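Anyone able to model this chain together with flavin-adenine dinucleotide?
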Amino acid sequence: VGEGNVRVPAPAEHLRDATESRAVRGSALASVSPGDTEEVAAVVRWCAAQGLAVVRRGGGTGYSAGAVPAGDAIVIATDRLTGAARVTPEAWRGTFPAGMTTAEVHRRCRESGLFFAPNPGSAESCFIGGNVATNAGGPRSFRYGTTRAWVTGLEAVLGDGRIVRVGGSARKNVETLDFVGLLCGSEGTLGVITEVTLRLQPAPEAELPVLAIYADREAGLDALGSAMACGAVPAALEFLDGGALQAARATLPGGLPPGAAFAVLTEVLGTDTVAESEAAMLREALAPGALTVLAPQTRRDVEALWRWRSGVSLAVTAAAGGKLSEDITVPTERLGEALAAIDRIRVDAGVEMTSWGHAGDGNIHATVMADPTDPEALAAAEAVAHRLFTVPAALDGALSGEHGIGRLKLAAAAAQLNPDVLALQRAVKAAFDPFEIMNPRVKIPSVADQVTPTEQLVSR
Ligand SMILES: Cc1cc2nc3c(=O)[nH]c(=O)nc-3n(C[C@H](O)[C@H](O)[C@H](O)COP(=O)(O)OP(=O)(O)OC[C@H]3O[C@@H](n4cnc5c(N)ncnc54)[C@H](O)[C@@H]3O)c2cc1C
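re: yes, here you go
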């Protein structure tokens, strides 16, 4: 791969991801940046021959420590997988190298009049390969689905160095089992994704968000219900609680009204006529009981509002010095019950917490504030984070909606998920990764991780 592309020891920035805000750091023997798929395959074959674990790294923005290496591992960084992108405007399709940032994918699509909906708040730093590996979502997943819904084909290097292409450019394809679906959200456990083919859509003419702020959660939850019932089909339906609003108040366009305790942020996309009419329906649906309703119209103001939303996570981190952010999901109509259960955990533990997330998808970024330099505070916060996993178990939800299981939720997955499903996951992994070198102890619990006797498991 060229001498300059192998770093021994691995640089500090390749030993961490966004879980650094909860003091998670890893270790590795070395970090390698292959320049193309053949080089990735050669590195994987060499690691397999040495019996060394391989940990994949995209942009390093993950929230579950899947890219954080442990022990005698080799990091394969995908930052040099930035070869040619091919956009075919007339077929609404694009093929992108795994190391391209999501923001660059968006820019390339826009240049051709096309649109790729998944828009994680980390788009400037995360890679499209990382988005596929985590099946990333974001605000617009409410209407347009997560990354999986947009992928038709993938190129990947499996755990023994085989290069495979699954799916392809065709928008419909059922000639095999759904290997594209398996790789989406596999968190690096099945292979190294090197190239991604996406089905795209024509770019919408207009993007019109509406932000409404309320004095209490009940009014906000009612407004969410009204937004879903008003006849518009919003692309995004987000919520933020009072703590998140306070942390991010400095950059909120229009400022934060006194007494703000809950916000609903929604957006419609489409032709000018459709977007304007649906935005009007949403403004009307959100107005009752609101302290304020903000509906920016110009591109500059719209971008400023979404920049503010993307900065909420970092603003919350800055407010406390650090945070533990979980990513549970519940059925949409049980959001209120979930937030009440999170309240009970917070009060019982006596910690500071805040929540925001993708309300339409019932996806809650329940967050415990903790200074990562204070070991006691961190331990207390970790215990609370663990208790949060009881919420989706009780409400027919899931441990993670978009951030993944990674290393951090492995024990919760081992304890909560059905043993037969866990065994099936291990069998699938063995087919892709016969030497068990791909992201070991990430996402897929081993038999040893399932320490709890079967009869005590909360099986779902
Ligand atoms: C401020 C902020 C906002 C965020 N907002 C969102 C959001 O709205 N929605 C959302 O879903 N997530 C969000 N995230 C989380 C994160 O950005 C996503 O999970 C993203 O998809 C991770 O991509 P990455 O390239 O940074 O991957 P990494 O963090 O480098 O890796 C994540 C996982 O994918 C694996 N991986 C990475 N690249 C490859 C590859 N080429 N082949 C195989 N495996 C690979 C890694 O091994 C690891 O398990 C946010 C994070 C931050 C910091």
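The two ends are 45 Å apart (CA to CA).
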